[in-house]
Structures are given as C-alpha cells and as structure tokens.
Amino acid sequence: MLSTLAIANYRSLRSLVLPLSQLNIVTGPNGSGKSSVYRAMGLLAEIARGGVNSAFVREGGFASSLWAGPADISKGMVRGDVSVQGSVRNGPVALQLGIACSDEDGFGYAIDLGLPPPVPPSAFSHDPQVKSEYIWYGPHRRPSCTLVERRNAQLRLQQGKKWVTVERLIPEWASMLSEFADPQQAPEMLSLREQLRSWRFYDHFRCDAQAPARHAQLVTRTPVMSADGYDVASALQTILEIGDEQALQDAVDDAFPGSLVRIDIQGTRNELCLQQPGMLRPLRAAELSDGTLRFLLWTAALLTPRPPSLMILNEPETSLHPDLLPALGRLITKAAKCSQIMVITHAPRLIAAIESAAENIALQSLVLKKELGQTQVANIMDCDVPFWEWPKR
Fold first, then answer.
1. How far apart are CA 89 and CA 5, in angstroms?
2. Would you give the distance in Å from CA 214 to the centre of its chain?
3. Phi/psi at 33 (5° precision)
4. CA–CA separation, 345 vs 329, rounded Å?
5. Which of 10, 51, 65, 239 is the most exposed place for a label (fewest CB within 10 A)?
6. Where are the beta strands (DSSP E) in 215-296?
7. Which H helix or E strand runs over 325?
8. What pTM, to 2 d.p., does this model score?
9. Do the beta carbons of residue 173 and residue 166 sit within 8 Å?
10. Cα Rg for the chain, rounded, in angstroms?
C-alpha cells in the first residue's frame, strides 16, 4: 500500500507531499489542484508503461506541464505586501514525481525530469529528459535502503554489499522501468513496474445516446472493465460468472430497490439490461437514464474480480442524482477492502457516505486549497506530512 505521494513543479503543484491510507478522499474547491493530482498519478503509470514523451504530448507538451507560478515566492508575497511577480529561474528545470510504501518490504520510487542540454541543438530540445531515477525499500530513501540508482544514462544496481554498474546505457528520454527490468539482476524493478502498470483510472464515463455502453457489444470474458466502459455488459457478466454475484446484485438493489442486473446474450453479442419492479420486461441500456447507466458502470468497475493494487476515481458523482451517492459511497468502501482507493470529489454527500461506511477501513481525508497559485493541504498539520527528500541529480 502506498503511504506517500510526492509531486513537485507540476502545474499548480509546486511542492506537494500527501499522506495516503487504504481509502483516500481528495477534495477541495474548483481550481484547488484535485485534477492535477489525478493527472500526476496518471503520468507515473504512463511512465512505467514506457510512454514518457507520449504522456506529456497529451498534456500539451513538457513546458505546459511545469509549475506555472513564480520561481521564487518571497516573504512579501506570502504576507500580501507585494503582488505575485515573475522571477528569473536560478535552478534547472525539474518536474519530480515519487511514491513510497508504509511496509518495510515495499518499494519507493522517484523520478526527476528536466530538459536536455542546449548543445548539441536538436529538434527535440523541448522533450523531457530523465535526469535521475531511484528505487528503494521502506518508507524513506536512505543510502542503505537504495536498490537502484539511475543518473542520466547510467544505471547502477545494488547487489549484496556492492554496487554494480550496468553496461547498457539507458536512453535519456525513457524510464529505466521500461528499458531495464531484468528479473535476475533487478527483480525489484520488475515488481515496481508491474505495480505501477496495474493502477486503474476511471474518469467520466460516456452515457450519451451514442455511447458504446448503450449498445450491444462482442461477448468476451472481461475481468477488468475498460476506462471508457464500452465493455460494461461483458464486465458485469464476468462478475456474475466468476466474481461476487451477490455483491453485484446487492449494490444494484441498494441503489435501485428491487432491481436486478440482466445480461441479454444473443449469439456473440451481449447487452446490459436492468429488471425493475413493476416492469413487465427489463430495460435495455439504451433506455436507461444517464444516472442509472453511470451507476452500473461504477458497479462494474469497483466489483472487478481482479482488484488492482490502486484504483483512482475522478469525480464519480458526475451525473448521479444525490440520492444515489450514499449507495455509491458504500460501494466504494466495499471495494477498498480489496484495493487501495483514491476518490477525487467535491460532493459533500458522497464524502459523508464514504466516511459513514468506512468503519473498519483506514481513511485519509485530504482537503486541498490554493495559496499564491500553489496547491496545499488545508487539513493536515506540518507534523503529519510524511518526510520526503528528493534525490539530488
């Protein structure tokens, strides 16, 4: 389980260290940085998949992803004596992402991204370059706990009591997690890579009239529903056959009393249906309201027969009637028994439902605010912020 998430110089996140627990709620007003936290975690997962450059292309380029505020914040700006003003950058460009685990046997990871040197000139001079990467075990990085060290193109592995330098150079535009994952020489790299790649992100399912979830799709075993939910019927059928069928029907009954999920299978195609009390026939996905379909999509995602190590939900309350939020909160809490969950939301009723249902689950609530353009945590004292120190280049 992750115990710490650290982000530096990413959009509005100038320097943010978040304590994490089994179930995490990230909330705050619009513009406070919730989406930046979500996207930063997506960057970490994409980097592990080998897409350092492609991840930033979707962000609008590396320059668009960097801290957008002043390089230095003076005491006068903090007191409000002077307005926020730009300043000359003294240090190098550095966008940093990191995680740590509470377990002494768990792995921590940090990556430092910057710009390539101006010489020799290149058409790709605006692409990010990996300056350093580290893997260690335990909650804090110390020299004695460091397992892997990568600086620029050079990679070193801790083997026994000595460091071994890998002869093969790592491309400076790629992560070591995708370029070198030898199960013999560096099993911790392979383990960490698979952990990051297993993270699951769900954000704003389509429910319009042309949404794939409203139409019949090919029948195929689907233990993990896709991010856009097009295969929701197959995902629900998989839960009915090899997952927790009772939990699925209980969740549907909790939201829509007396209702049952049905999957209509015609040859090689299937379609989601909902049998409701008082109706002579089940309603097909095309007939369901946006809120009803969206709740069923969240049910398929959260009751997966193959729980991930971490699941991140971005504003799951979107398009749901407030009366459905307590049932969604109970569903999220149930999923947190099998996976670490992060919920990014600004719906007080959903937050209250999660807090009420999380009796035997460690819950961490993080309220974000923005001061002088940078995101901070409003409800955590400095003494409760996990210790974090970025590795030097």
1. 26
2. 27
3. 115, 10
4. 11
5. 51
6. 217-218, 260-266, 269-275, 283-284
7. helix 325-335
8. 0.91
9. no
10. 23
Place of tokens 């919730």: 34
Residue type, 35: S
Q: Locate 40 and state its tokens.
A: 């930063």
User: Could you give the CA distance from residue 393 to residue 384 in angstroms, rounded to a whole number?
Assistant: 27
Tell which residue, 48, 62, 135, has the closest CA to residue 100: 135
pLDDT values of the chain reduced to their tens digit, one per residue, 393 residues: 899 999 999 999 999 999 999 999 999 999 999 999 999 999 999 999 887 888 888 888 898 999 887 776 655 555 455 556 555 566 788 999 999 998 777 899 999 999 988 888 888 888 999 999 999 998 888 888 999 999 999 999 998 889 999 999 999 999 999 998 788 888 999 999 999 999 999 998 999 999 999 999 999 999 999 999 999 999 999 999 999 999 999 999 999 999 999 999 999 999 999 999 999 999 999 999 999 999 999 999 999 999 999 999 999 999 899 999 999 999 999 999 999 999 999 999 999 999 999 988 999 999 999 988 899 999 999 889 999 999 887
364 Cα distance to chain centroid? 16
Q: Which helix (H) or strand (E) holds 354?
A: helix 348-357
**Which among 96, 115, 77, 157 is positioned nearest to 373, based on CA atoms?**
77
How many separate helices (H) and strands (E) can be counted in the chain? Answer: 11, 18
- Beta strands 340-344 and 310-314 are parallel
Residues 6+ apart with CB under 8 A from 126: 61, 62, 63, 115
C-alpha span between 352 and 79 (Å, rounded): 35
Beta strands in 160-222 (DSSP E): 162-165, 200-203, 217-218
